[in-house]
UniProtKB/TrEMBL annotation:
Source organism phylogeny: Bacteria, Bacillati, Bacillota, Clostridia, Eubacteriales
Record keywords, A-Z: Membrane, Transmembrane, Transmembrane helix
Species this chain originates from: Clostridium facile
Gene3D superfamilies per the UniProt record, alphabetical: 3.60.21.10
PROSITE patterns in alphabetical order: PROKAR_LIPOPROTEIN
Keyword Cell cycle: no
TM stretches of this protein: 7-26
Calcineurin-like phosphoesterase domain ranges (all copies): 51-215
Superkingdom: Bacteria
Designated name of the protein: Metallophosphoesterase
Pfam families xrefs: Metallophos (PF00149)
Amino acid sequence: MKVLRNIALLFLIFIVAIAGCIFYAFQIEPYRLKVHPYNINQQQEGTTGYKMVQISDLHIKQDFTNQNLKKVVDKINEQTPDIVLFTGDLYDNYAQYNDNENIVAELQRIQANYAKIAIWGNRDYGGGAENEYQYLMESSGFQLLKNQDYSVTLNNGKTILFTGLDDSLLGNPSLPSTKESRHFDYHILLTHEPNTAENYLSSNYDFAVSGHSHGGQINIPFFPALKEFALSNTSLSSKYSGGMYSIGNTSNFNLYVNTGIGTTHISARFGVVPEIAVFQLFL
């Protein structure tokens, strides 16, 4: 009888643990927020540090509304960014849920000393979002790029060229046909899907930022196969799931894959806390 009681107790503990993990994955982790800081080049004598903040994949929907976005915006502003980058997917499914007035009001609150820059993600095309996305981002103070360049001149006279690509799943990404020819001190590529960055290894970019992968959303320690399953079955990028990558055989070209803020397919995260990336750039 004692053995049976012990087995029953272990089984109960197991059930409670599983229930706790499920509760955490659906009700707690998707609403947490982490800030990940990085230096993306070396500080040298005579250079000034500038702060770029990247967010991605907001996936606004019924269980992640403007009230949740408010927390994200507050955290962005706490970083006192010089430049803010958004790498696509504003709504999860525009046809099912949208709240344009309140979402724009929150995005307008994002403060940046020089620029707020955005690109298109695949979710910015579906469900009627294609007809609204440009208006929403421009109304929010973002410079929206679709196969376009945008340059920023810093207060020390140094310049950064940003190239924003169209979405590679539902758009038509390509480098700008009228690429600016004057000299820039730093070149940054923005692309929603990270795999796309490999196509531009020879295009003299110093750094690239992307999103889309969500880190698989589910990353259970010691069970990497579950993460790979989540990535492959949600049409996300399994090659670049999240974090910093050095890509290319002889290139120093770094790609950062932001694991995003929101959720898609299922409203759960486990082991992939929503993130804001903060890049310190010395020029």
